[in-house]
Design brief:
Elements (H helix, E strand, L loop, with lengths): L1 H28 L5 H4 L3 H22 L3 H32 L6 E5 L2 E6 L8 H16 L9 E6 L2 E6 L2 E7 H6 L4 H22 L2 H38 L1 H4 L3 E3 L2 E4 L1 H34 L4 H55 L12 H20 L9 H17 L1 H16 L7 E4 L2 E8 L3 E5 L5 E5 H5 L3 E3 L2 H4 L6 E9 L5 H14 L10 E7 L4 E9 L5 H18 L16
Antiparallel strand pairs: 1-2, 3-4, 4-5, 6-7, 8-9, 8-12, 9-10, 10-11, 13-15, 14-15
């Protein structure tokens, strides 16, 4: 056994010496491959020692020593093999656990992936190994002529070195083989084969003959793109000329009922703009395809071509994918909108029936039907928005929620007066103080109502002044309606009054007779019921009379009042009744 131990130590010293010699040789000639020596860590040396020990033990077993000695050697051999098997199983389990979260680093020659690294070796990461091998592949590509037979495999315990002549190209460890689920020898042979194929392929593709062919293809491609752009421009110009010449025959105005949406010149301008957009889009497509194909012709620029395709394809694919994923959300949205439209159509039908008087509901006035329909429709719209909101794209994002809160704060702060006016408008609608066309007096303004909506009411005075009154103002003010008594079957009509003061010397019976006669002479005053006179007050120096005359024309009440005054003055002059009402001032002399 002592003899075997000496042999073992001798082989180990030779191994360490070879490592040191290789280190000094690569430091002097091949700086880029120093990781190969550094990769032989203590673990790798232990694997090598185990391999040497296994070889020695197997040789001793073959020599046929004594039974006890063979038994001891067999036990030691089984122990080393079991230990190696357990190490491999443990490492394989660790790799399987990390496989899902580990992404390989590709080694590229131009646009082809030659190999992939999953793990580090020594202090060199997978990315650094891929970078080094990529540089070496470019080095091999530049070797003319390239000799595939010079690419060899050299085994160093658990590390296989790939060499081209005396230059180390790459190194593979047993861990790399475990990641690929194969043996280290097979993996090394596969890498050598892939390197030979890739280098030979690109050297063949990039020889002078193929380069000249590619240059010819580039020229043809550029000419084809320019020709397509020229043809597109000619077609555009020809189409525009035809449209201009035949606009009176082919183009007709677009109308919705009596409203002209698009005239012929306007429609012609829109069509020309559409043609311009189509032309620009086609030119962009030509250039995009041309640049993509142009970069794809040369191997050195194929990566750029792939990047250009990716930059356009990725957003389009993402948009298309988002649309496809969003399609299931359209089903509940469509159902909600369908139910909403069905309900609104039913409500609109009953609204029209109530307006026409075909449907009567006790305590519900016909003029309430349209405002009630609008109010219910608005509530339904809000409900539909609330129901649809969760199905909108991006509704759950923080940005969307932030904007919604911001808009809500703005509306709550800036629309307080608008909300109060809207509430007042709803209250006024159901109070029914007036209708559109009624003559009303609100505060100091008198006129007929020309518009009434949820926020404001507009009236037009006798002088054609349009007054806009907020609904809160109307709700907080006294409103006089001069037209409503005309519509009320229990009311005779509107009373126009005139106040007159006369002295005590004038007979009150004569005054009453003259005032009634003046009322009957006035156009627009009803004969039945006949006008009447009231004695309003007995003042210190005169008597106050009030003439009241009925009319069914509230829109002429100002003119009727003026005519009454004319007739009163004329009749009193004819009757020689003095309309001067004297006032006496008692002055005492001391």
């Amino acid at each position: 056994m002592f003899k075997y131990l000496k042999c073992y130590l001798l082989l180990l010293l030779l191994l360490v010496g070879s490592f040191v010699g290789a280190q000094s040789q690569q430091d002097s000639g091949m700086h880029h491959n120093k990781w190969l020596q550094e990769a032989l860590t203590a673990k790798d040396i232990q694997h090598f020692k185990d391999s040497v020990t296994l070889s020695i033990l197997k040789e001793q077993l073959k020599k046929g020593n004594s039974t006890s000695e063979q038994k001891l050697l067999k036990e030691k051999l089984d122990s080393i093999q079991l230990h190696a098997s357990l190490d491999i199983s443990k490492e394989m389990a660790e790799i399987d656990a990390e496989r899902a979260n580990t992404f390989p680093v590709p080694v590229l020659l131009f646009s082809d992936t030659v190999f992939q690294f999953y793990t580090s070796i020594g202090q060199y990461s997978a990315a650094q190994r891929a970078k080094d091998l990529t540089e070496k592949l470019n080095y091999l590509y530049k070797q003319y002529p390239y000799q595939p037979d010079s690419l060899t495999i050299q085994a160093h315990a658990d590390i296989y070195a790939i060499k081209y002549k005396n230059e180390v190209i790459a190194g593979l460890s047993a861990t790399d083989a475990l990641w690929e689920n194969t043996s280290l020898k097979i993996l090394s042979e596969k890498l050598v084969q892939q390197i030979n194929i890739a280098v030979a392929k690109y050297q063949q593709e990039n020889n002078w003959t193929n380069t000249l062919k590619r240059i010819g293809l580039v020229v043809v491609l550029i000419v084809a793109i320019l020709l397509l752009i020229f043809i597109t421009n000619r077609i555009f110009i020809s189409s525009v000329k035809k449209l201009v010449r035949s606009k009176s025959k082919t183009l007709s105005e677009i109308k919705i009922k009596d409203y002209k949406v698009f005239s012929r010149p306007h429609l012609l301008s829109i069509l020309i703009q559409i043609l311009k957009v189509i032309r620009i889009v086609l030119v962009i497509v030509y250039l995009y395809i041309g640049v993509t194909v142009l970069f794809g012709i040369f191997p050195a620029t194929q990566k750029w071509s792939n990047n250009i395709i990716f930059f356009v394809e990725a957003p389009l694919r993402k948009i298309l994918s988002s649309m496809l994923h969003y399609l299931p959300n359209l089903i509940p949205i469509a159902l909600i909108v369908l139910v909403f439209r069905l309900i609104t159509k039913i409500l609109k039908y009953f609204t029209k029936e109530i307006e026409r008087g075909q449907l009567k509901i006790k305590g519900f006035y016909s003029e309430w039907s349209r405002p009630t329909y609008n109010l219910v429709r608005m509530v339904l719209c809000v409900l539909v928005v609330i129901l649809i909101f969760p199905y909108l794209p991006g509704s759950g994002s923080i940005a969307f929620k932030g904007i919604s809160v911001f808009v809500g704060i703005l509306l709550s702060i800036g629309s307080s007066s608008a909300i109060s006016n809207a509430v007042s408008g709803v209250v006024i609608t159901y109070m029914r103080p007036f209708k559109i066309g009624d003559w009303v007096k609100v505060g100091e303004f008198t006129g007929h109502v020309i518009e009434k909506n949820l926020l404001v009411t507009r009236i037009r005075t006798l002088q054609n002044e349009d007054i806009t009154l907020p609904n809160t103002t109307i709700l907080n003010s006294q409103t006089v309606n001069y037209t409503k008594p005309i519509r009320d079957p229990n009311t005779i009509g509107l009373v126009v009054k005139v106040d007159v003061t006369l002295d005590y010397q004038t007979d009150w019976k004569l005054v009453s007779e003259l005032l009634k006669k003046a009322a009957l002479l006035t156009e627009g005053v009803l004969r039945d019921p006949e006008p009447f006179v009231l004695q309003q007050n007995l003042n210190d120096f005169n008597v106050a009379y009030q003439l009241n005359a009925y009319t069914l024309q509230p829109e002429r009440m100002f003119f009727i009042h003026s005519d009454l005054l004319h007739h009163i003055v004329d009749l009193f002059k004819e009757a020689d009744v003095n309309m001067i009402s004297p006032q006496y001032i008692n002055i005492k002399k001391d």
